[in-house]
Fold these 3 entries.
Entry 1:
Amino acid sequence: MLEEIVREYHARGTTIVFSTHLMDQAERLCQRVCLISKSRKVLDGDLKEIKAAERRGVVAVEFEGPDIWIQGPEIDRIERKEGSLHLILKDGQDHQHILNRAVASGARILRFDLIEPRLHEIFVRHAGEGLVGDAGMDDGPRSASSGGLTHFGTA
C-alpha cells in the first residue's frame, strides 16, 4: 500500500524523500539514492547512472553447442544461476572477446546479457562487506545490527 501511495504522489510530480533499509524497495521506487553507512555518505546520485557505472564483468549466457569457449583467460569463475551460466570476468576484461570466441566456436548463442548489479551489491562495494552483513536484503527478518544502513531517494 505504501508503494502505491508513493507512486501516486510521484505521478503528480511530487518529490518524495524516502528512507528505507530494504534495498529492493529502494530500487523499485527511487530515481536517486544516497547510500549511508556508519553516518557517512558512501554514494549519491541517479540510480540508473550509478548502476551503469557500477556494472562489472558479469555476463549471463545460454547457448547450445560446444562449450570450450567459456574457458577463456578473461573469465575468473563460472556460476550457475536461474537457468543460465554467469561468467564472472576478471577485472578490466572485455565481454566482447568472449562473445566473439563463442560465435567462432560454432555455439548457438541464445542469451548473452551483461548483468546489472543490485543496489545491495553496490552498497557492499562502497561500504565494505563487514559493515553490511545481510542487512538490506528483502528476504526475511533482520537483526538490529545493520551497520547503520540507510537509503534515501526520490521516487
Entry 2:
Amino acid sequence: MKKLLSIAAATALIFSFANAGGKIVEEAYTPPVPVPTWTGPYIGLKIGYIKGDGDINLKSTNINTTFSPNSFTLKPDGVDGGLYAGYNWESPSGWLFGIEGDFDLMSADEKKSITQTDYPAGIAAGGIRNTNEYKLKQKWDASLRLRVGKVIDDKWMPYITGGITWARLEATYNGNKDSKTATGWTLGAGVEVKFTNNLFGRIQYRYSDYEKEDFSHGNGITSTVDYKSHSIVAGIHYKF
C-alpha cells in the first residue's frame, strides 16, 4: 500500500513538472513597501540661545543737537523658548516636505552710553553735554517656514528650512521707549531624531534678517535699527 502511495505521489509530481514545461516556476520576491512613519501633524516645545545684531543710527530734527557716537552696533543676547507646530509629508523614497510655524519669548537686550550735546542759543561754544543711555531689546519672534529633509534609516532626518519671520523690537533712549514689529526672512538647518513613532527631538540653527525700523524717542530724536539675529535651539515634539 505504501509503495502504491509513493508511486502515485511521484507520478503527480512528474505530471506537474511536465505541465510546467519542465521548469520550476518561482514567484518573484516583492520587498515590502516601507510605511511613512514621519507623516502627520505635530506640536512641540523648544529652548535655546539667541544673539542679535543691530546697527543703529541716532539722529535729531534739531540741528543744534549731536550724539557721540551717533552710529553704533548693539548685540542683544539671551535665552529664548517657545512652541512650534507643523505638518510633515514623507514620500515613499524618504524625502520629507513640511510646513511649520513657531513663536518664541526671550530676554535679550544690550545698552550703550551716549553723549548728547545741545547748543542752545546764547550758550558758549562747547554746548551742554549729557550722558544718556540707549538700549535695544528683542522681546519675541515668530516665523512661518517650509522644510525639506531626508529620512535616513527611519531614525534621522537632516533638513533645511526657510520662510518669513517677525520680531518685536524695543528701543529706548533717555527713558523714552518705542516698540515695533519688524518683518524679514529666515533660513536655517537642523537634524531630527525619532525616539518612537510619536516622539521626536531636534537641534536647529536659524539666521534671520529684518527690514530697517524707525523708533521715536521724543523731542525730535529718532533712531533707525537694522536688525539681524542668530538662534540655536533644541526641541522635542509629539506627532499625532
Entry 3:
Amino acid sequence: MYYYIYDSFLTDKKYERVIASVETRLTDLGISGKIGRLTPFTNAKGLIRDETRRGVQTIVVVGNDETIAKVVEGIGDTKLTLGIIPIGTPVSIAHSLGIPEGAEACDVLSKRLTQKIDLGMVNGRYFLSQVCFAGDNVSLESDGKFRLTMLAEECEVTISNLRSVVADDGAGHTAGDPMDGWLDALITPRTVGLKNVFQRRADKVPSVIPIRRMSVTAAEPFAVIADGREFMNDTLSIEVVPEKLKIITGRERMFA
C-alpha cells in the first residue's frame, strides 16, 4: 500500500503537466494510492503517523531534496520503505539513488528494487545526504582519534552519507557510499565572498576522512545546511546510523 506525500510548491501551475503525467503513469502501473500534502500547517511526521496506523507500508516522496529531508525526518524509527518521485529542484539525492525525474521515476518505483542504507544523524535529527558548513573557527573531533581546529581558513566541511559526486581519498575508500557504515568528512578550500560561502574551488581536492561519530564546536553559532535545510548552532553531534532506511533505488545508483 503506497502513500504519496506531495510538497506544497507542487501546487504551482508550472508543475500541472508533470504531475498529471506522473499520476497517469502510476495508474497504468497499478500503484496509485492516497495522497497527502505538506502545508505550513501540516508536517511529514504527522501525515506518516496517521497513515501507518491505517496499514501503509511504503511512503513515496513527490518533490525535491528538501521534501526528501522532511519525509526522512518524519519516518524516524518506523520500518517503512521510502520511494521517490523527483520533481522540481534540486534533485541531487534522487540522481545519486539512480532515480530519473518525473513520470520515469514511476517505473523505478514499480520495480521495487530496495536497499537498506545508512542514515546520518545531526543533533538528534536524521539526514540522508549530507551536512555542510563553513569551517572557519570551528573545532572537529572524531571518535576520540583526532582533533582539528581551524582558525581563519577559507574551507567548507561536508559530512557526507550520500553524494552526487563521488570522491576518493586515494586509499581506495570512496566517499559517499551509504552502505559502508561510515560517514565521510570532506574538507575543501572554498572561494571567498558572501555569495560563494559554500562554493568550492575547482582546482582544490578535498581531504576525505571516514568517521562514525564527530563533534563540532565553535565560539558562536554558525550556519549549517542538512539536506538543503538550514539551521544555526554552536555545537553539532554527528553520527552514522547503519542500515537505518529501506529505500527504493534505480539501477543507475552511485553505489553498490
